[in-house]
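The pair is set out directly below:
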Amino acid sequence: MGQVYEIHKYRSESFQYVVARTNKHSEDYVRSDVEKMNIMLSPGMRAEGIRYVFELGTVDSMSKKAGDRGKKKEKQGVLEEGAAAN
């Protein structure tokens, strides 16, 4: 299994969502992006406790998410076909 690097958004100590996930860039590259993103936060966002954090993941977690997107598209296609039939 390879390494996957993720950028997570937090508000105070509360996880919000995964901003980005990659296995194509180096760890240093992604860490640098996280630093840049935190520097660009407005004073108001910092006051709310918003920050970006570098995290390690696995390829398995990345492929699972890609599979979830495929299932969602399939489900939407079924819903659209059903609506067209009515």
Remarks:
- The longest strand covers residues 3-11.
